[in-house]
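During the second year of the project, the team shifted from modelling isolated chains to modelling whole assemblies. The rationale, set out in the original proposal, was that interfaces cannot be judged from single-chain predictions alone. As a representative example for this report, we include one of the complexes processed in the last quarter. Its constituent sequences, exactly as entered into the pipeline, are reproduced here:
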Amino acid sequence: MLGRLFGRREPQAATVHVEPFGWEFHVEPGQTILQAALARGLPWPSRCRVGSCTTCRCRLLDGDVRALTDTSYVLSKEQLAARVILACQSQPRGPIRVHLARTKATLRRDADDPGAAAADPALPAA
Amino acid sequence: MTKYLRFLGVYAFVLATAAGIALGGPWMWLGIAVIYGVMIVGDELIGDDYSEPAYAHRRLLDALLYLAVPVLGLLCFVMAWMAGTGDLFGVGAWVQANLGHDLFAARAATGPLHWLGGILSAALTFAAVGTNIGHELTHRTSDRGAMFAGRWLLALTFDAEFAIEHVYGHHRRLATAADPATARRGEHFYGFLVRSVPGQTRSAFHLERDRLAKLGHPAWSLHNRYLRGWFMSAGIVAAFGAAAGVAGVVVFVLAGLAGRTVLEAVNYFEHYGLVRDPDAPIEPRHSWNSNKALSNVVLFNLARHSHHHAEGDAQFWQLRSYRDAPTLPYGYLTCMLLVYVVPGWYRNRMTPLVLDWDRRYANATERRLAAAANRASGVPALQLAAQGG
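Output from the structure prediction step:
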């Protein structure tokens, strides 16, 4: 919450560490997490890139991000409380660590398996 | 520098509209005549432009967008002056003394049929400049200044809620049955219009209500951006009322509502008949694209629509041509005029293009969805194709 007060601070280049894959990459100032990940050829799932479909969602474990869209339109109350963010709409403020539940390869399997979708993988186990 | 300044062209259309209204009488039709005439002929003569220049001066590009606010403000002032009875801010006297034009005589020579032209011209201008630039600015959801200016521009057509529905609704549900702003196969423009306007309004309200519920705010409060959008439009109506009485309100409300239908005409042909598996990514093939040079210059590359939906975070000057994407048969204003005047003809004109889309662009899932859409379309040629396939 305090991060909001400093919302006007310019985003800085930062390192993103992605669990459980152990990926680590650099995000340039003004870049989003997704842009940086795709530029490195990582199989980060994404669709709309305007912060509406939530395909690229991940959970913020450490650090802070600047959100470019109002994620409260598209994420559930539980996801918001669990610090779920949208990679396509997040610029890191300093180094961050996130948890990504799915890759491009597993996305299609989720869609075919309603059970997997119901147990929202971007959420921590209750 | 030309590659920047060419985007000023659209403002000439606003000035033509404002000048026509100020000249009064039959001149009131000047704006709509010039806009349709120049665009339809120009798109045919000039043809396509596939160039993708690099731009270094972002502030200049932004200035070209924000210029819409004062220029449309000027247009609104001219409309209010001409609809009123007195001499608003003494402008009539000043114009007579300094420019030699008698606004009072122009007003006296203007009847209801003249005003029809003025209202249609203003409506087209509100949409081409206000809605279009409002669209570009309200995609910048993290920029408060852009959201503020963009929502006021959209409020001219009673559609500040577009900033909610378009980004969080249309871009997510594009080319699926759940999207009120995607025209179905066989649907003609006026059928689409009466479905899409209430559909988008409902969607915007629900998106906002659900957002407030998640944050623990009451739906009926000033936290509600949907309601605040309507207050913005109400504020403009009140300003017209204060400046020009009932006539001012009537002129603005009609222009705003007619302007809203222009957006729907564009929505109609941008995605007509296209289908997508809701679980699959949005690709360039899910929009009808156009690289007509004039349409893109005047509309800040809106016609490069395939890229806009495939990568919604791209700014207008970054949009690529995607020359292999499904392409509209004509430029934007030509499609618009056809959609308004001969909606059934335009729909039939699209039938071979839609069938070609099924063959050349659709994946296996989309072919199944397309066959179902063809059967339900009510268009014999499409139904026949569904049987054959």
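Chain B touches chain A at residues 139, 141-142, 164, 167-169, 171-172, 207-208, 210-211, 213-215, 279, 281-282, 311-313 (CB under 8 Å). The radius of gyration of chain B is 21 Å.
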